Amino acid sequence: MGAGDGPTQPLASVTNRPHLKEMPDSSPTPDRIARTRWREVILVCRKCQKKLDKKTDGGFGPDGDQTLRKALKRYLKPEFRVGKGRKAEIAVLQTGCLDICPKGAVAAVNAARPEAVQILAPGVDLLTLRRRLGLPVRRPPAEGDEAGGERGDGAVDETLAKA
Predict the structure, then answer these.
(1) Rounded distance, CA 133 to CA 110, Å?
(2) CA atoms lying within 13 Å on the CB side of residue 58
(3) Residue 160: inside a domain
(4) Which of the chain's termini has less CB crowding within 10 Å, N or C?
(5) Phi-psi map region of 82: left, alpha, beta (phi>0 left; psi -120 to 50 alpha)
(6) What Rg, from alpha-carbon coordinates, does the chain have?
(7) How many CA atoms lie within 13 A of 19 on its CB side?
């Protein structure tokens, strides 16, 4: 008997987990999809962040003492749900090496725009960083506008132009 010939254990039921959806399949273990609220996914190179010496090179954020991932999360938090969980609107995730390896900077990419990997030097202004990564902006509510920059479906009205 091979490893795959024994009896298979059924997967846990997805009926009590509304974020999982069972896909129709003839195999004994059906494929499942986990739904997320992610609109944007930012990938930050873990190796670049680790190599960056905050004492000599500086860091990110208002005081220059944060990693790029943490500075982005804190900067975007007043407008969006930010994190890495499935309920976040913008996911800021650390990834393995992007094979660019800039000296004294961090490589990051918006997963929706993989053709443009950004090389971000410490101390860069967070608004500039946001523009370069192509992250959305919610417009402040106009007079008489109750929606607060969002349409009824929760979509973002405007995206900053690429720098």
Answers:
(1) 6
(2) 12
(3) no
(4) N
(5) beta
(6) 20
(7) 7
Percent above pLDDT 90 for the chain: 28
Tokens linked to 135? 């992250």
Q: Which amino acid is at 2?
A: G
Q: How many domains does the chain have?
A: 1
| pLDDT tens readout for residues 64-95 | 888 899 999 999 988 888 877 888 899 999 99
Residues of the domain holding 68 = 40-135
The label of the residue with tokens 């969980």 reads 85
The pLDDT of residue 78 is 86
CB neighbour list of residue 91: distance below 8 Å, 6 or more residues apart: 36, 38, 40, 41, 42, 82, 83, 84
The token pair at 160 is 């900053």
Report yes or no on 77 lying in a domain: yes
Note the pLDDT tens digit of each residue in 38-55.
889 999 999 998 888 766
